[in-house]
Predict the 3D structure of the following.
Amino acid sequence: MSKKTKTTGICYLVGAGPGDPGLMTLRGKECIEMADVLIYDYLANHEFLKWAKEGTEMIYAGKKASDHAIPQGGINELLVEKVKEGKIVTRLKGGDPLVFGRGGEEAEELVDAGVPFELVPGISSAIAGPAYAGIPVTHRDHCSQLTIFTGHEDPTKEESSMDYAQIAKAPGTKVMLMGVGRLRLVMDELLKNGADPKMPVALVRWATRGNQESIEGTMKTIADIVEKADFKSPAVCVIGDVVKCRKKINWFENRPLFGKRVVVTRTRTQASGMSKQLRDLGADVLEIPTIRIAKPEGDELIEFGKLVQDCHKYEWLIFTSPNGVDAFFDLFYKLYDDARSIGGARIAAVGPGTKAKLAEYRVATDLMPEKHVAEELAKEIKKQIGDLNSLQMLWVRGEDARPVLSEMLVKEGAILDEAIAYVTVPETDDPTGNVKRFREEGADIVTFTSGSTVECFLDLGLDIPEITKIASIGPVTTEAIEENQLIVDIEAEDSTIPGLVKAVLKLAGK
């Protein structure tokens, strides 16, 4: 009788970096993708959760002042328990797990329990936060020493272990983490121990993210300035002459969309491309995927399979979305081993996004209209081909596609079969917390890329305030927005994602 093989688990203690998704390490991303269990902190950007594989158990273990989702002891026990179950556990911690992140304590618990683990360093906010505010923590003209200390000690200690006299006397830059709540006390202690009252100080809140805020003062004035501005944690505090560099090299906060919160409503898999473009322009992006793409079921799925299998019989294959392209070729390569099995069909695409997706499968586009809507595609087909009578065509589409393309081609005599490649279903989860954040904080601009994103956004029970602007990708989406008694503030001149991004810039006055 064979023994049952026991799976060996492991825990990855991963630094999630300061918040900007681009600052997550490649190893950290791999650990998220491998995880059976993902235990994440308050300061770890929740956008990273979308990298997890389907079925991953998500556990929030965030800790804010006096508000711990799970006490540290409970987190330690949870890590050990899950690894002993044979699972791959990724513990996602903001910044670097060993820079005031209690990663060392968690590693010791894992060693004591006899379970394997790996430490994955992350970029610390102590360095990245000032950098995104235009402050180098070292500079040959200002300093060659860096001191990093915490403003938040173990609350169970009877006395502080901070040597403020040594910190005050230390030359160079000083960076304090987790100290906003005790800022006045810390500044007073440093001044009592000989620090220069005129020394420049800056605080950077939500550093490296689109909602980053910075504030400046001196060691004597900063506590009053912070209290008057109601400047809250999480923030990095930088003390030193290097703060003067901010005036010249403040690169991140000068981006055209900095300070603007923009909602992206595409599917989870599609949102990242648009989000990156907006983030690169400085926007605070809220990804609120309102729809997800699913396979057709029952008879529709059987029919789709038959049409893909017979695709070589058609003279034209028509694609009107990237999702349709993916669904078609995913099934095609399950049915055929040779790309030539597609036959001699010519290819039509509604727009550059669909064309680019076809190119990923090494398929060239023979026809694409200048305006990227179904009506114009039908007109372009008629213009280029001429007589459509008895022309055999296959249209690969989504279940909710408008019938206008079919109506126009059939009217011209084409023999058109329609392959329903996918269905759109409402996305009801809120794994990143952005739905909650939108309800609480609102946004400057909401973008819509299809009629279904409009309907499903409203189905989430989200109201769009009058002060929030609406950007539409094109006329069909605009029609859906207006049917819901909403006002479109701008429509993209080119019905593409880059076109929509340009519209957002224009709406922001850039």
